[in-house]
Design goal:
Blueprint (H helix, E strand, L loop, with lengths): L1 H15 L9 E3 L4 E5 L2 E5 L6 E3 L6 E3 L3 E6 L2 E10 L6 E10 L2 E10 L2 E10 L1 E8 L7 E8 L2 E7 L6 E7 L6 E8 L7 E12 L2 H9 L4
Length: about 220
Amino acid sequence: MKKLFFTLLVLVSSQMGIAQSLEKMQWFNEPEEWEIKDNSLSMFVTPQSDYWRISHYGFTVDDAPFYYTTYGGEFEVKVKVTGDYKQRFDQAGLMLRIDHENYIKTGIEFVDGKFNISTVVTHKTSDWSVIALDKPVPYIWIKAVRRLDAVEIFYSLDDKEYTMMRTAWLQDNIPVMVGLMAASPDGKGFKATFEHFKVKHLPDCRRLEWLKKNAEE
């Protein structure tokens, strides 16, 4: 009966165009404590967990919680993130992942007592970019748009005005795991909540161009 309810919920949600059904997603590195309620995901982030490969620090880790679904082609994904950040590098946001050597994680990160908008892009090795916020924020919206071989990343404080923070390469024409990520590399874990998670399919740019050039007279 529960499975039937979730199936009906997914069908209704898709017809109404509301948020992604979290019940159909799956865990990579499932945390010990998590809950789905009112189509939001709350978790207690696994202590001393992260995603990083080699560069600068000299180690590789791939063990933080990641709750995901898989999409092919081009899409837009966004989510509202709230966290009880405590220790250096506590973080929460989105991740787009092909495999353990190719992924993008982006969201809010607590560094040196300040809130930062953070992105790590990994292709064999990881890089890290941050934008420091001038004050603490109760929550943040993160949005990523995958078009061809590029991902554009934005943040917003109100889900209305979005600011671009990064454009990164990601191989196109290959399925991508996309979902909700949180990590606590230095800390003992913290509570993170993800609301209004939504993935929207975007028509393929190359196909649209072909259709335009080959339109019927």
